């Protein structure tokens, strides 16, 4: 039986749902639960096929959103990081009654580089898929290291992210490949105007996966959203700059 893993924390009244990124699980949020708990009723979810949400087969972005939606309290603040940002945006499009506010962290409506759109080159994503097949664990570790590249405490931040996958069930090769395919192919740019939930986009200035040049382009496509850039942060601002990150969330939602 396919079971979605969820956990609940916090003493606040406002529901907050946290969705992690590719190759990881909800333990990435361990370090921000304490500062957020007084303000929110938090739901952590392992994306279908990741961590303790097993056994799921490969799912499209729409299917992932459909599996997650029943676990989201009505009128939630839904926060998605990286691949989780795409899932959160899809939820805001398909399940408007669930998403009161949307927080889009180190994410992009289109991760893949396109004509006049900065993103991850198809070669890089293709290489990750090839390497996954030959050295599963090392590829995930490389991807994690890439997320802290350029930050002041890069090795410490990488170790912190790696802690999330220690002792946790790992996603299957098929699920990981499908996640990379979503990052490569899915493009929500034309659907952004249909998102009615107030939206905050949080970026790291040094993010090598979501280039800074894409931020003003997303501003134009999504004028109802607001964006902030955390200087000296990369792809995981909640790990490298937890205080600034939590402060931004609390300010936006209260």
Give a brief outline of the structure:
With 254 residues, the chain is of the alpha/beta class.
Q: How would you describe what is shown here?
A:
The protein has one domain (6-253): Rossmann fold (3-Layer(aba) Sandwich), CATH 3.40.50. The model has no long low-confidence stretch (mean pLDDT 95). The protein has a seven-stranded mixed beta sheet with strand order 1-3-2-4-5-6-7. The chain is globular and about 45 Å long. The protein has ten helices and seven strands. Strand 4 (76-81), helix 3 (83-94) and strand 5 (99-105) form a beta-alpha-beta unit. It has helices at residues 33-36, 61-68, 83-94, 122-134, 136-147, 154-163, 173-185, 214-221, 237-240, 242-253, and strands spanning 6-9, 14-19, 40-45, 76-81, 99-105, 199-204, 225-230. With 254 residues, the protein is an alpha/beta fold.
Question: What descriptive keywords fit this protein?
Answer:
alpha/beta; Rossmann fold; 7-stranded mixed sheet; 10 helices; 16% strand
Shape: globular
Provide the CATH top-level class. Alpha Beta
How many E strands? 7
Mean pLDDT: 95
| H-E string | EEHEHEHEHHHHEHEHH
Distance N to C terminus: 39 Å
Please name the CATH topology: Rossmann fold
Tell me the number of helical segments per DSSP (H or I, 4 or more residues long).
10
């Amino acid at each position: 039986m396919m079971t979605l893993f969820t956990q609940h924390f916090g003493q606040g009244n406002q529901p907050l749902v946290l969705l992690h990124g590719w190759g990881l699980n909800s333990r990435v949020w361990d370090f921000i639960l304490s500062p957020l708990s007084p303000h929110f009723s938090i739901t952590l979810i392992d994306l279908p096929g990741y961590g303790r949400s097993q056994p799921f087969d490969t799912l499209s972005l729409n299917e992932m959103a459909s599996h997650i939606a029943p676990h989201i309290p009505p009128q939630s603040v839904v926060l998605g990081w990286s691949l989780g940002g795409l899932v959160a945006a899809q939820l805001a499009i398909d399940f408007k009654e669930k998403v009161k506010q949307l927080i889009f962290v180190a994410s992009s409506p289109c991760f893949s580089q396109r004509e006049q759109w900065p993103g991850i080159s198809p070669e890089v994503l293709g290489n990750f898929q090839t390497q996954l097949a030959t050295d599963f664990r090392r590829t995930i570790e490389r991807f994690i290291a890439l997320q802290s590249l350029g930050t002041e405490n890069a090795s410490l931040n990488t170790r912190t992210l790696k802690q999330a996958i220690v002792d946790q069930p790992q996603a299957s090769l098929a699920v990981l490949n499908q996640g990379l395919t979503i990052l490569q192919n899915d493009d929500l740019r034309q659907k952004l105007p249909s998102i009615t939930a107030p939206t905050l986009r949080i970026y790291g200035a040094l993010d090598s996966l979501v280039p800074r040049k894409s931020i003003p382009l997303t501003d134009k496509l999504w004028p109802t959203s607001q964006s902030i850039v955390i200087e000296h942060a990369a792809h995981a601002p909640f790990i490298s700059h937890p205080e600034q990150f939590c402060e931004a969330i609390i300010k936006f939602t209260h």
